[in-house]
Design a protein that fits this description.
Blueprint (H helix, E strand, L loop, with lengths): L7 E3 L8 E7 L7 E11 L1 E6 L2 E2 L16 E7 L7 E9 L1 H4 L16 E10 L4 E5 L5 E3 L3 E5 L3 E5 L20 E3 L7 E3 L5 E8 L2 E4 L5 E17 L6 E7 L2 E2 L2 E2 L10 E5 L5 E3 L6 E9 L10 E8 L2 E2 L1 E5 L2 H17 E2 L1 E2 L12 H14 E2 L1 H16 L34 H13 L3 H20 L32 H22 L3 H22 E2 L2 E2 L4 H9 L5 H17 L14 H7 L3 H9 L8 H4 L35 H8 L2 E3 L6 E4 L9 E8 L2 E10 L2 E8 L4 E4 L7 E3 L2 E8 L14
Parallel strand pairs: 6-14, 12-21, 33-37
Antiparallel strand pairs: 1-13, 2-7, 2-10, 3-6, 3-8, 4-5, 4-7, 8-9, 11-12, 15-24, 16-17, 17-22, 17-23, 17-24, 18-21, 18-23, 19-20, 25-29, 26-34, 27-28, 30-31, 32-33, 34-35, 35-36, 36-39, 37-38
Helix pairs in contact: 3-5, 3-14, 4-5, 4-6, 5-6, 6-7, 7-8, 7-9, 9-10, 9-11, 11-12
């Protein structure tokens, strides 16, 4: 771009939510307008109008990126909005740039002044271009927003609303000038991923009164966004809306929010007002409303769900309503946390792009929605943070923790298993899901930098057994206040993960024809495997003898064939000893059902999946959950909130088992990247009698449906034209499939040995 725009700031801050405007007249003598494009960015978040009309439905532009090195801009076709004399108006909010981030209570990490950046290019029929850009000729004034913060909420005073600022001839009483900020336009880059928008709206499910007399609204679903109000009351009166995910003792359960206020305030104009606080968002199912004038009716409130614009491509349904609800919880948890950045949680004073969460969840995300551009965009920030931190992939991306002297109970950032491995695992998950080598090419330097750094951290014995590790984070047996105190030895976990990353990287190098790197990383993987077996494996038994270490060793391919069976049997034995309740944390949970399936213990995998007592995947469903919880027991069986300081009811990571559900229950797995060749291999189990799964791939739509009836397993599958596949059924020889529908019926008894479905590397 030939930038003529400057990053400008108002001469007065106007409560952190200034308006900026520029009135202009189109040049004459050049014919009709052929095209008009508005390029928009900001330090903060920005909304734009042209002649009183919003230029798009986008929210929170330009989102959150590693602002020091990368600030995104969005382009909008505004041809139809132009007049001969026009007004371009911008509204600014704090957003991630200047608002609170993390749990330190601090804000303004990236800068102290909000800034607007806009360049409108008008092309006429004769080829002449007219440019209207942010510069010193703009003016700034107050909006109706008195306060705005992503964590704390937004205050809107409807008495201050005046749309005349968007019309020609506006007098601008009380408005001031602007000044240019020091800004390097070389960091401007177009969006790679999608923008944020409204994607759903939910009506009120129930209005109740709490034991203390508060008015509580239940929307029936934990979501991310805000409440839209339609209200009329006395001028100057105030309606307050507080948000929370759960109730405790019949009252709004706000303790998990920590210091986040999650409160919106609306001051009424006296006329009919409509409020939408678009400079904030909340994670909530429940809202507490105070100050409402007269009777509050369900039609007065609507929950608006926001998130990055993603296309749904994968579906899953079974004969078990509780399992279906669990899967729906995975979907809602993902949507609520994919708000420009893949965050850990959307409600408390955190909402950070934790790398460990997406490392675990990426294969599930890539099946449910097309997240190729979304995660590719985020990976660019990961590479930038890593390049400026000596090859370290930080705990969160964008990395706000680097600004904190003491970021928490863990030490300063260093490479750590799973979390830093996201730099390798996420690109590989995208490649497997969509078959596009571009993501490997773009991230290859980042991937190699990570594995080489890990190699430099290994002990002389070849193990990654020193330094800080999150390990099997949130092991259900860990104390609430010590989520890292897991059963699994951190060295076992870290060395296993290092092996997986080195193996993936060797495969990525082979895909890209990087022969020298393929040899280098294959050798690193071989050395890690040898050290792992020498120091951690004894006759198939893995050091620290818990479910997570066996799951990782089996699925990652660390064990010799003679040890695999012993390890699988021990894993199944440990699951039985735990009453088939879950015993893994972040490290083991994505892989344990695959490990059981691979070693012939499919029945155990199903018992683990379908267990309903705490801790288990279905326990939260029995407690009414509509998203995935951060802890297995975020809410205790007596209805009280887990006493740990860190408790979220919308945290997708432990929903990573849905990847196994799609492949093993649903029966759809890639035999080659991007599903150019497909494995159709459903493996019924538990008490399920049917399942139906679909996936829209780059090659077309795949569907698999199976039903158990009268001792027969009936399969109906449909592959896109030109796509080959293999049908693999329990007790049957493989059958070749070609594009098109196929229906097969085979004898089936639950005791038959299970086939082994594709497991992610």
């Amino acid at each position: 771009m030939n930038w003529q725009a400057r990053m400008i700031a108002p001469d007065h801050d106007f409560d952190g939510a200034p308006l900026l405007r520029r009135e202009f007249t189109l040049d004459t003598g050049h014919g009709a307008v052929r095209k008009a494009t508005l390029v928009l960015s900001a330090q903060g978040v920005v909304e734009a109008w042209l002649n009183g009309q919003p230029v798009s439905n986008d929210l929170l532009t330009p989102g959150w990126s590693s602002y020091e090195w990368r600030l995104r801009y969005q382009s909008h076709d505004v041809t139809e909005l132009l007049n001969e004399t026009s007004v371009l108006g911008l509204a600014l909010g704090n957003g991630w740039f200047r608002g609170r981030l993390g749990w330190s209570g601090r804000s303004s990490f990236y800068g102290s002044e909000l800034g607007a950046f806009a360049q409108l290019e008008v092309e006429f029929d004769d080829g002449t271009r007219q440019v209207i850009a942010t510069d010193s000729g703009w003016t700034a004034g107050p909006s109706a927003v008195l306060a705005n913060d992503l964590y704390d909420g937004q205050t809107i005073d409807a008495r201050r609303r005046d749309s005349s600022w968007l019309t020609a001839g506006f007098a601008g009483e009380g408005w001031v000038g602007v000044h240019a900020l020091e800004f390097d336009t070389s960091i401007l880059t177009p969006y790679v991923g999608p923008s944020v928008s409204r994607w759903n709206k939910l009506p009120v499910k129930e209005i109740t009164t709490s034991p203390s007399g508060k008015t509580l609204i239940d929307f029936g679903q934990n979501l991310v966004g805000w409440v839209r109000l339609n209200v009329q009351g006395a001028e100057g009166s105030e309606v307050t809306v507080r948000h929370a995910e759960v109730l405790e003792h019949g009252e709004l359960g706000t303790r998990p929010l920590r210091t986040a206020l999650a409160t919106d305030r609306f001051i009424l104009s006296g006329a009919a007002d409509v409020f939408e606080p678009t400079f904030t968002f909340h994670g909530f199912r429940y809202a507490e409303v105070t100050g409402w004038p007269g009777e509050l009716k369900p039609e007065d409130l609507t929950a608006v769900a926001i998130g990055s614009e993603l296309e749904r491509i994968g579906t899953f349904r079974t004969s078990d309503p509780m399992l279906n609800q669990f899967h729906e919880n995975v979907v809602w948890g993902m949507r609520g946390n994919f708000v420009d950045v893949p965050t850990d949680c959307p409600q408390r004073d955190e909402r950070l792009g934790w790398t460990g969460d997406i490392a675990a969840f990426a294969p599930t995300a890539a099946f449910l929605y097309d997240v190729d551009s979304f995660l590719s965009d985020w990976l660019r920030d990961l590479s930038l943070e890593q390049a400026h931190q000596d090859g370290i992939i930080p705990y969160v991306v964008p990395d706000v923790l680097k600004f904190l002297e003491h970021p928490g109970s863990f030490p300063d950032t260093e490479s750590t298993a799973i979390w830093s491995d996201a730099g390798v695992w996420v690109p590989w998950a995208l490649y497997e899901a969509y078959g596009d080598e571009t993501v490997l090419e773009n991230q290859f330097d980042s991937m190699t930098s990570h594995v080489r750094r890990v190699k430099s951290l290994l002990s002389p014995n070849g193990l990654w057994d020193t330094g800080f590790q999150f390990g099997d984070w949130l092991d259900p047996d860990a104390p609430p206040e010590e989520p890292a105190k897991a059963k699994a030895n951190t060295g076992v976990v870290a060395t296993a993960c290092a092996y997986r990353s080195a193996t993936i990287l060797a495969d990525a190098a082979e895909v890209l024809g990087r022969n020298a790197e393929q040899t280098e990383f294959a050798q690193i993987a071989a050395d890690l495997r040898a050290a792992f077996n020498e120091h951690y494996v004894d006759g198939g038994h893995v050091s620290s003898d818990c479910t997570t270490v066996y799951a990782l060793a089996i699925v990652f391919g660390l064990l010799d064939a003679s040890d695999d069976g012993v390890a699988g049997d021990r894993l199944a034995e440990l699951c039985a000893e735990a009453g088939h309740r879950i015993s893994t944390g972040f490290a083991g949970t994505p892989f344990i059902t695959d490990a059981l399936t691979k070693t012939g213990h499919l029945d155990t995998a199903y018992r683990l999946l379908l267990e309903r007592e705490c801790p288990s995947w279905l326990y939260p469903v029995t407690m009414g959950a509509t998203t995935i919880w951060e802890r297995w027991d975020s809410m205790l069986p007596d209805g009280t909130i887990n006493p740990g300081e860190m408790t979220s009811f919308n945290h997708y990571a432990l929903g990573a088992v849905a990847d196994w559900m799609h492949r093993v229950i649903g029966g759809i797995a890639p035999l080659s990247p991007g599903y150019a060749k497909v494995l159709v291999a459903p493996q019924p189990g538990g008490e399920l009698t049917e399942a139906e799964t679909t996936l829209t791939t780059r090659h077309g739509r795949i569907s698999v449906r199976w039903v158990l009836t009268e001792g027969q397993l009936v399969i109906d599958a449909d592959l896109p034209s030109g796509v080959e596949g293999i049908l693999r059924l329990p007790g049957q020889d493989d059958r070749a499939l070609t594009g098109g529908p196929v229906s097969v019926s085979v004898p089936f008894t639950p005791s038959q040995p299970a086939a082994v479905a594709h497991a992610h590397k």
